[in-house]
Amino acid sequence: MVKHLIISIIVIAGVSCESNKDDGINAGIINNNIIYKELIPPMQIFNPGKDSLDLNNDSKYDLIFIKSPKPLLTGFGIQTEMIKNTNTQIIISELNDYPDSLNYNDLINDTRNWSGNEEIRYVLQSYSCNSNTCPSIGNFINVNNKYVGFKIGK
Asked: What's CA 139's distance to the chain center, in Å?
């Protein structure tokens, strides 16, 4: 059976309606500060494969998702990566340097640990093998209903 990745994206457009106030938004909650775009059909990335999203309709991909085989001690695993392009920022975990896996209703605001504006490739889930073991790395390992917080153009 071919394994695949299904990604639902919530597009965030603006954080506050008031210019001097930044209360933020909550992951997964739809309100006037969010443009919600459900991908129909859902994005499916087969191994190996990639797909990308242009979140602000500027004809440039803002996020690129890549799935590839990863050599392990006794075979192959799957590695999932995300390339974040220039002027797109994502929330990085304060526990490690990987994209944070946000829960439903987590607050997204300017006080979060945001990445820089440069283009960079992040691991969402993979393995880091040494001579004895292959521990999992990343914050999107065996998870469901998680969100990536991002903002464009700040």
From this structure: 10
Q: Which residues contact 28 (CB under 8 A, 6 or more apart)?
A: 10, 104, 105, 145, 147
Query: Is residue 8 within 8 Å of residue 27, measured between CB atoms?
Result: no
d(CA 6, CA 52): 12
- Average pLDDT over all residues of the chain: 80
Sheet with 75-84: list strands edge to edge.
49-53, 63-72, 75-84, 120-127, 136-137
DSSP string, 97-135: SSB--BPTT-EESTTS-B--SS-EEEEEEEE---SS---
Q: Record the tokens describing residue 53, joined without a space.
A: 């999203």
Q: What is the rounded radius of gyration, in angstroms, for the C-alpha atoms of the chain? A: 16
pTM for this prediction: 0.76
Domain ranges of the chain: 4-152
The confidence score (pLDDT) of residue 147 equals 87
